[in-house]
Structures are given as C-alpha cells and as structure tokens.
Amino acid sequence: MNEVSLVRLYMLRAVYLIIAVGLGLVVWPGVLHHDKPWSLMGGVVNCMLAAFGLLCAIGVRYPLQMLPVLLWELTWKIIWMLVVVVPAWRSGTMDAGTMEILVQCTVVVIIPIAMPWGYVFRKYLQQSGDRWSRAAPPSRQGA
C-alpha cells in the first residue's frame, strides 16, 4: 500500500509542531520586537527561521505536502555538519560558537525518525516529474 500510516502522519505533525512552537518562542519575539537594527546575517537568519516556523505550522495540517520543508532543513544541516563541523573537529579547531550551533542543530535527529522514507522515495524519486514544455496538441483523428 502506498499510503502513509496514521502513526507516521502524527509523528510528522509532532515534528512540525515542535519546530513551530520552538521557533515561535525563540525567534518570533525578536522578529516582532527588536530594539535595534539587526546585522545583515542576523536579519537573514532570523527571517529565515521565522519563515521556517510558519511553514512548519502549516505542516501540522498538511504533513505530506510540507515534506520538502523538512527535507531542506535536514539537508542543509547535514551539509553544514560535513563541511564545517567535521573538518573543524578533525583539525582540533572547533570553537565555542561552532559547538553551540552544532548542539542546536542536533534537534534535526527527529526528522529522519519521523520521515516516511518509502513515501519520499516513491513521491520524489520514482514518480514522473512535471512536464518541461506545453502538452502536445490533441491529435486530429479522421482529418
């Protein structure tokens, strides 16, 4: 059966809810009431996190449709860990700031646990992609 189980849907909803509430408590107060201008990257990061939290709130209602949001989150964190953390750890240059972000990023472990990997495989790797051009005009039969 190609359907995602109800248990898996509730697991996804829990992940979305944890992220949405967490970012709602941590990021949104600063977005709504910041006293001084943000630095360029501070503003980018806070606005991206706020948008991610809103999209996760939508994911509570539409867990399968919003899977690309979770896949993006999982992917960028894995890339960051491989490209930034692993080399810093191997060379002994891991600083407190990198360690702090790594600890924050470890929450990502809940995503692969809840992810319906069979559905992701069928939907994003096996299913035909959208067409690249206009549909062929209907053929004229009997003309």
| Rg, Cα atoms, Å | 20 Å
Total beta strands: 0
* Whole-number total of structural domains: 1
Estimated helix fraction:
55-70%
- What is the tally of helical segments? 7
> Are there runs of 5+ residues with pLDDT below 50, and where?
none
Into which percentage range does the β-strand content fall? under 5%
| Apparent shape | extended
What number is the mean pLDDT?
91
- The succession of helices and strands, N to C, reads HHHHHHH
Class from secondary-structure proportions = mainly alpha
Main β-sheet: number of strands, strand sense, barrel status?
none
Distance between the termini: 44 Å
Name a few traits of the molecule.
single chain, 143 residues, mainly alpha, 7 helices
Your description of this structure?
The chain is mainly α and 143 residues long. It has one domain. The protein is built from seven helices and no strands. Helix 1 (6-26) runs antiparallel to helix 3 and helix 4 (67-91) packs antiparallel against helix 5 (96-105). The longest helix has 25 residues, at 67-91. The chain is extended, with a radius of gyration of 20 Å. The mean pLDDT is 91.
